[in-house]
Amino acid sequence: MKRLGLAMIAVLFSVTVSFAAGNSSKLSKEPFAVSFERLSKYLELAPYQMNEVADINDYFIEKQNESIRSTAKRQEKKMEQAVYSNLKLMKSALTPEQYRKYLVLLNVTNNNNRAQGINALPDMFLADADQK
User: Fold this and answer.
1) Is the pLDDT higher at 44 or at 12?
2) Model pLDDT for residues 40-50, shown as the tens digit of each residue
3) Residue 12 exposure: Cα atoms within 13 Å on the Cβ side
């Protein structure tokens, strides 16, 4: 009886994983956005950082929208440029500790989005992005 139960769990798990993998190719056409309010609390932004980070966040969303509207051939390249420009701007606006937390947040959010088949950033390792 236990083996039958374990077999059923294994089958359900594999079906769930297959379903999630099948949907991951259908990414939504919405920009990868992080709520500024949550971001400011998570990063513990100082008052002097808030306007700059809000502007960078808005710029990132704008650049993503541009990539979404571009041709399929250029979408990934434009999205990659949007990510790298966002990281460069954030690195100059945040302290090293805040920037590290921001990278972790982007990686975790991006991985969760990929697993759920919703909007995700291009395939790249975001932790290496500050070295480019």
Assistant:
1) 44
2) 999 999 999 99
3) 6
